[in-house]
Design a protein that fits this description.
Elements lengths: L8 E6 L5 H12 L2 E4 L6 H11 L10 H14 L1 H9 L4 E4 L2 H9 L8 H6 L9 E6 L17 H18 L1 H8 E5 L5 H16 L10
Parallel strand pairs: 1-3, 1-4, 2-3, 4-5
Helix pairs in contact: 1-9, 2-3, 5-7
Bound molecules: 2'-deoxyguanosine-5'-monophosphate and sodium ion (2 copies).
The site of one sodium ion has 3 residues, from loops.
Keywords: ATP-binding, Hydrolase, Kinase, Nucleotide biosynthesis, Nucleotide-binding, Transferase
Pfam families: Thymidylate_kin
GO molecular function, one term: nucleoside diphosphate kinase activity
């Protein structure tokens, strides 16, 4: 019996407007990867998340910070079985945001009691990416480019970035980061220039043997 080789799970993380979605879509189109984006705003939970983020039909009081945090996590859990099934079927997956966004955006709020362990807690057990690519863009410091959603503000983005960097340089370093993390500075680069770099990371990972699943 021939065993199917497990597919790779590759994640792109970063602040808003760093080009994550564009790159994930290009990789999935050109290399036949499945594409998952979190939050997935189409599920029942995703619809609540969408109204929170866009602040439409939402009075700002219905959901506490803890509650929205758990909904973001739940949104990842909603699709977990399907993702694992695809991977076991040998399909490669590109992920647009995942656990690290979950931790970073909530930690950045600085809410008492919502520390790193608390924020990570509900995501423990999700399958870990084989590779995480963290996009950094130093070009939009003035942030005229941000949209209207709840976190798309200069001060919030600066805090989120700090938290991302802490996670990737301290928290996750020991067990995981060395082989599974690439930081990519995309400042001033065009879409195809970024793509070339992202694709080379993706191909390098795709050529490695697949291990058993690792978990958060
Ligand atoms: P996007 O659709 O990629 O622009 O993401 C929507 C916004 O939600 C963006 O500002 C990042 C934020 N976000 C994504 N995932 C999470 C999460 O798990 N928790 C929190 N609090 N925010 C998140
Ligand atoms: Na956004
Ligand atoms: Na995006």
């Amino acid at each position: 019996m021939v065993e199917t080789k497990r597919g790779k799970l590759i994640l792109i993380e970063g602040l808003d407007r760093t080009g994550k979605t564009t790159q994930c879509e290009l990789i999935s189109k050109r290399n036949n990867y499945k594409y998952y984006k979190f939050p997935n705003r189409e599920t029942p939970i995703g619809k609540i998340i969408n109204s929170y983020l866009s602040q439409q039909n939402y009075d700002g009081k219905t959901l506490s910070d803890q509650s929205i945090h758990l909904l973001f996590s739940s949104n990842r859990w909603e699709l977990q079985e399907e993702m694992k099934k695809n991977l076991l079927d040998g399909k490669n997956i590109m992920l647009d945001r995942y656990v690290y966004s979950g931790v970073a955006y909530s930690l950045a709020k600085g809410i008492e009691g919502m520390d790193y362990e608390w924020c990570f807690g509900c995501d423990r057990g999700l399958v870990k990416p084989d590779l995480t690519i963290f996009l950094i863009n130093n070009g939009n410091a003035d942030n005229d480019g941000f949209g209207d959603e709840i976190y798309e503000k200069k001060e919030i983005q600066a805090k989120v970035r700090q938290v991302f960097e802490t996670i990737f340089t301290e928290k996750e370093k020991k067990e995981y980061i060395k082989d599974h993390f690439k930081q990519l500075d995309v400042t001033g680069l065009g879409i195809e220039e970024v793509y070339e770099k992202v694709e080379s990371f993706v191909k390098e990972e795709a050529n490695k043997d697949s291990t058993n699943f690792i978990y958060f």
